[in-house]
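Reviewer 2 asked us to include a model.

Predict the structure of this chain.
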Amino acid sequence: MQTILVLFGGVSPEHAVSLVSAEAVLRNMNKENRRILPVGITREGKWMLYGGSDYKEIAEDRWETHPDNKIAFLSPARGAGLCILTAEGAETVPVDVIFPVLHGENGEDGTVQGLFELSGIPYVGCGVCASAASMDKSVTKLIAATTGVRQAQWLTLHRSAFKADPAAMCSEITAKIDYPIFIKPCSTGSSVGVSKVKTAAELMPALENAFKYDRKILAEEFINGREVEVAVLGNEQPKAATAGEIDAGAEFYDYETKYITSTSTPYIPARIDGDTMTAVRSWAVKIFSALGCAGLSRVDFFVTRDTNEIVFNEINTLPGFTSISMYPKMWAADGLSFPALIDRVIELAQEG
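Predicted model (structure tokens):
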């Protein structure tokens, strides 16, 4: 019997996305010879073992009030596993693999991975260093540059400098980058806090919004291109799936377009020629390896509409696992079903 701890929720702006991903993972996970421990982290940081069996309660954010929930936490002591508080006292359950279905801050940035390392329990996804470097877009860009991949022009900006002289920051940005300009927090996902700025009047509000989410943000050149995504899977010898494409049907692929509205259209395979498909898959593996990633990641690019050039955008080390997420869809298109993909990432976690 294999015990799998599925961790979801989290103190993160992407808490709600995590709940939907967790429901899909729990519903599609092979249960044979497995004990599944669904543990949720509330927005306030409280850990609870979900006591129900209707995973829709998780997706619909109703799981916290289930009467059979128990306070639970992962012990940093090696061999202790999951500690569950009961009326009789405390119970410890050994865990074979942790599957973190967490997105963004406090889940994808190396923090919780550090706890997993202390616990000595194998876990799905990238390690501490790769998670932290991939979460911080400014660090990601510096490491990705070592591969030689083209990237959009960018500036790294700090909240302290903005508070000291907002006008000077605006001048610094526009001296280097032409409109339209993307303003984005360095360490959020799901396009939280991201703005596409087309005029000078929009720049200051966009900076104020981005700095709400992070003390460090990026100003980035707009790339007129197709939004192409590549699912990467593996440890020492990672493989890339057939690339997919998102037609946002909006100004850009923001949080609302990803998870709320239905304006976006996915294409698998992406609408690019064969040579570009081969190249973008190769770049995805190179970037994955350069960052020291393991298990899984989704690597995002633009393919320019005028010159068909590949431009690296960002990497997501714990990509969405919802029913509409591109990562599982890309592998499904290559013949790896959702349940088989879950089995594979668990196997990769155990490889170490």
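The CA atoms of residues 14 and 347 lie 26 Å apart. The chain has a mean pLDDT of 94. We have added this to the supplementary material.
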